[in-house]
Amino acid sequence: MYSQINKNISRYVTFDADELEIFDSLLQYKAVPKKTIMLQIDEMCSFEAFVIKGCVRKYYIDANGFEVILQFAIENAWISDISFSNYEDKPSRVYIETLEDCKFFMFSPETKEELFSKAPKFERAFRILVQRSLAVTQDRLFNTISKTATEKYLEFLEHYPTLSQRVAQHYIASYLGISAEFLSKVRTKIAKL
Amino acid sequence: MYSQINKNISRYVTFDADELEIFDSLLQYKAVPKKTIMLQIDEMCSFEAFVIKGCVRKYYIDANGFEVILQFAIENAWISDISFSNYEDKPSRVYIETLEDCKFFMFSPETKEELFSKAPKFERAFRILVQRSLAVTQDRLFNTISKTATEKYLEFLEHYPTLSQRVAQHYIASYLGISAEFLSKVRTKIAKL
DNA sequence: CGCTGGCATTGAACTAGGACAAGAAATGAA
DNA sequence: TTCATTTCTTGTCCTAGTTCAATGCCAGCG
């Protein structure tokens, strides 16, 4: 059960058995049914969750009530509103919702602090996780600005081959920053080639 | 000379005098003339720079040769391709260029390691810096997708009031993800109100 | 089984913003 | 001061993507 997350956290920093034991002992397991909103706008995000099983989306709602999906998280990904919460004491501007029945390992701000004090090397591992999120988000920004809808969709398929089977088309459209109708047109155009 | 950067690094983590002394002793001062490219595509980013004075831009070049500006950095901001370099051993996909004559304090990967080993609390401060970058980039992604050119420009003026005087319009257009010509039209429309 | 409510598709009309071109204005080097 | 280069503006035409509406689809539920 712990092997997935232990492998993930060890990706850029090597930990010995003692450290991983501390890590595992602080994890909180949680199962969440599908279509559950785990973080509301204006709430403080009180968790950092690792997806053992399932699929989650994180999204903003714009001034006209339209959703913009910032991130999908599936197995072996982390999801949280890490960017503001807990460090700025600013309430979250995003929603986090399960799209499927999910199983998580979670850290609360408190258990994360406990982890860092008991095994400081994890501070580095978490910093690198954030850096990777930053890299992904920067790439996404670049793609959003510089590519056509068709290019963005093809790249999405390449990058997340399984996701297009698991989530509704209109969520993918929202992630790509295009309308659901236009994505449908793009798809029929691609299919005809 | 060190007060600016010491204030900046102490924003979310409190350091004592000893720690700040270690920090200051590891900084490398560097002056760079305007229009200098500090990081080329496919190079490894070997610095993390704090802007004491001046203005810098970080940008991608897309498949058609168009620049997309990811970030401006002015006084008291950090600039680097922190997202990949040094941790993935992947070469940078971005350019970093000075727009004005600049003065920096820099860390190399080595001096940063030395800092973390001598004063581990800095690891946390740097993690929080990355989280703030992530928050800013996420907001930018959301704005890029969900707002009109006019809204984006007005928000830019509000958020970076001095920058619109310091950098060329077409750089701002590139940052906002619109053409320079269209930004000009937006500006005249706004001026007429 | 049939019904209901969310999904996806398709089409027609519309628009925000892009591409191109040409001129005006500002900057800067000599 | 002049010439050159870059930046900014303005106009015209064009297109990628939106909006709105109608239709069909299929999954879950009584």
Largest protein interface, residues of each chain? A-B, 34 and 34 residues
**How many β-strand stretches of chain A?**
8
Span of the ends, CA to CA of chain A: 44 Å
H/E element order of chain A: HHEEEEEEEEHHHHHH
The best one-word shape of chain A is elongated
Round the mean pLDDT of chain A to the nearest integer and report it.
92
Helicity range of the residues of chain A? 40-55%
Q: List the strand order in the largest sheet of chain A.
A: 1-8-3-6
* Largest sheet entry of chain A: 4 strands, antiparallel
Notes on the structure:
The structure is a homodimer of 193-residue chains. Chain A has helices spanning 3-9, 17-26, 109-118, 121-146, 149-159, 163-166, 169-176, 180-191; strands spanning 28-32, 37-39, 48-53, 56-61, 67-73, 78-79, 95-98, 102-107. With 193 residues, chain A is an alpha+beta fold. Chain A folds into two domains: 3-140, Jelly Rolls; 147-193. In chain A, the strands form two sheets. In chain A, strands 1-8-3-6 form a four-stranded antiparallel sheet. Chain A has a four-stranded antiparallel sheet with strand order 2-7-4-5. Chain A is elongated and about 55 Å long. The relative contact order of chain A is 0.16. The interface between A and B is medium-sized, with 34 and 34 residues. Chain A binds a DNA duplex (30 and 30 nucleotides) through helix 8. Chains A, B: One of its GO terms (molecular function) is kinase activity.
